[in-house]
Write a structure and sequence with these properties.
2 domains; 110 residues; homodimer; UPF0122 protein lwe1821 (chains A, B); Arc Repressor Mutant, subunit A; UPF0122 (chains A, B); mainly alpha; UPF0122_fam_protein (chains A, B)
């Protein structure tokens, strides 16, 4: 469960702009703010089942986008290589202020 | 015109998986293979107008995806910073084989 929440949060970070306003709202209440389905249902005055179905479909959409675009996967590959690069540069004493700064700028582009 | 073709090719590279089979086909004939609308119409046995409308809508979709996800923009920002980093490392004699290799791997993740 924790792993799924974590993955959904990450996918949401990358693809939320492709979701509808309603999808965004439900998913962020559920995964980011940890509301229960019942609480979200009350908040939006719709049935618990409607919330459940909507979130379920959104999860499928997010996985579909990831399958097609792979933004999360590429991000994680990049993170791993940035760490390796940083370790290599540090070990060789190559990580001076300028190099460090450029590397930081690179890492800040998600 | 050349600039637009170039941009459409780049956007197509990033977002083609989000297009329908037909959209992909028309756009790649038009922008990648430089067919005329008339030639594509003949190829698919539909009207020139239908091809035009479809490609026009696809262009709008590609721009919309870029607006929402910014994969091309981020790619270009990254390219620029990779060049800077490489220049800095080269100038300081820090670009040895290992560092070069890790950097190449990083650049190969689009």
């Amino acid at each position: 469960m924790f792993e799924k929440t974590n993955r959904m949060n990450l996918l949401f970070d990358f693809y939320q702009e492709l979701l509808t306003t309603k999808q965004k709202a439900y998913v962020s209440f559920y995964y980011l703010d940890d509301y229960s389905l019942g609480e979200i249902a009350e908040e939006f005055e719709v049935s618990r089942q409607a919330i459940y179905d909507n979130i379920k479909r959104t999860e499928e959409s997010l996985e579909k986008y990831e399958e097609k675009l792979g933004m999360l996967k590429k991000y994680q590959q990049r993170e791993k290589l940035f760490s390796e690069l940083e370790a290599q540069l540090t070990k060789k004493n190559f990580l001076d202020e300028q190099v460090k700064d450029t590397l930081e700028q690179l890492k800040n582009i998600d």
